[in-house]
Specification:
Length: 220
């Protein structure tokens, strides 16, 4: 009987993409709504959120890279935030570069931008623990593929981190190891944006990816 559905269904990759596109549209609409009430643009809101995690501030080039936007677009966004008093420009440690850091008002605004996707977190929480872990692992793989294709900048994910060692422990629930905290962890702990992330060399990332994807089960 399933053969009938095989013949009348679009490939599952297409339907998953349709679902992701629908979620993307809602996210964009919520971001515009949240940004509008805060008097900023979604790009400015995303920049605030990123700077909130960077206690030492960030250079303009790093902001552009992490947001996947051009340097002039990042410069416009940051100048607008400086003019609003949400971001401060400070001399970097070498005294030649400029670091962008949040003002106290910027920290408050950044905390508010983090509430924009709360509606989606509520929806994800309707999944059981195994489903959430499987979804997280799948997202890591999709984002990594987009990264490899050059469609998104390198993200601060475990999979590209120098400290990540997949499947080095026998423990079924926590088979991976983070050398930064020197502890075992499982798929449910995989990070998509870790402040301690240190990008591994390309050949190390390739070997890590091979080891991570050689096992298909998600450890919950
Ligand atoms: S430092 Fe962060 S990104 Fe790197 S392996 Fe540990 S938890 Fe993952």
């Amino acid at each position: 009987m399933s053969a009938i559905f095989d013949s009348i269904s679009e490939p599952i990759s297409r339907r998953v993409t349709t679902g992701l596109t629908k979620i993307g549209l809602v996210l964009r609409s919520r971001a515009w709504k949240g940004a509008g009430s805060a008097g900023i643009t979604p790009t400015q809101g995303n920049a605030l959120g990123m700077l909130r995690d960077a206690s030492d501030g960030m250079k303009l080039s790093a902001v552009a890279k992490m947001l996947g936007i051009s340097a002039p677009t990042a410069s416009d966004a940051m100048n607008a935030l400086v003019a609003k008093g949400l971001v401060i420009k400070k001399a970097g440690p070498d005294r030649r570069s400029i670091n962008l850091i949040l003002s106290p008002e910027g920290e408050t605004a950044a905390d508010r931008t983090r509430e924009w996707p709360d509606f989606l977190a509520d929806a994800v929480e309707t999944l059981d623990a195994d489903e959430q872990t499987t979804l997280l692992r799948a997202l890591v793989k999709v984002i990594r593929s987009l990264q490899a294709a050059g469609d998104v900048p390198v993200q601060r994910m475990c999979i590209s981190c120098r400290y990540f060692h997949p499947y080095v422990h026998e423990h079924g629930v926590n088979p991976h190891h983070c050398a930064f905290v020197d502890a075992a962890f499982g798929d449910r702990h995989l990070r998509l944006d870790c402040a301690e992330h240190l990008e591994a060399a390309p050949e190390v990332q390739a070997a890590t990816w091979q080891a991570f994807t050689s096992r298909t089960e998600s450890a919950t």
